[in-house]
Predict the structure.
Amino acid sequence: MKKRLLEGLITPIMTPFNRDENQSINYEETKHLVDYVIENGVDGIFVLGSNGEFTVVNKKEKIEFTKKVIEFVDERVPVYAGPGCCSTYETVQTAREMEKLGVSALSVISPYFVKLTDSELYEHFKTVAESVNVPVILYNIPRMTGNPISKEVFRKLATVKNIAGIKDSSRDLDNLKNYIEVAKAHDLKVLVGSDGIIMEGYKMGASGAIAGMSNVIPKVMANLFKALYEGNDEAASKYQEEVNYIRAVNKKATMPVVLKRSLELGQIAQVGPARKPAKESSPELDEEIKAMLKHYEILK
């Protein structure tokens, strides 16, 4: 791999859909999107994350989509994949199939809907990690799962085979700091999962970010990381601030409606709509998206 694992800017890539009855996956546009983000400087691609709509993609589609993205990437950057399952059994089975496809690492989200104890969370992640031979990144996004990964659970998991780090989408800097403290003690990595605090997270010791906005503005975000690597705080602050415009517009519809429509209106990739029950962008929102795209000079 030309890019280092678990470092830098990782794009949680959209899952493009056709506008047909079944909203089938559009692989031609998937390739366009893969090429776009890689050519604009991202360090990795993560399939089937939150922005990749893993909750509305069935297992067969997950495996086929992961396989195709690995082919399209063609070893230019690492490919991460998320099984996105609730049960330990299904997570293990999906993780093993993804490993066979050749993923560089797996991102394993906390089970969701049912509230779990710390002991149950620990056993879940331990079982999944020990069932494969590729690095495993824990994925903490408590506002969506209802099951936060505590500092103590992360510390206990830090010595488990194949666990390589954690992605934190809690938006809580104190929580991120706690993870980084554990990670440094065990030579693990921490990835920021909130686009608005990438600079702060990097300064605290995070190794990179899984950043949804990089689907649309990869160059801006690649420049942010370049400035961070070079220790150019003034430039980094400027680029971090630049991310706020798209973040503000992104909050005006169900995830990932705005990002998908941005890719279409910006003529980057015809990724189609988010899968139902999410609704398509309104004409009024389209105008806001176009204004945002003009700001980034994606639209003239």
Q: What stands out?
A: The chain is about 45% helix and 10% strand. Residues 8-236 form a domain with the TIM Barrel fold (CATH 3.20.20.70). The chain has a mean pLDDT of 97. The chain has one domain: 8-236.
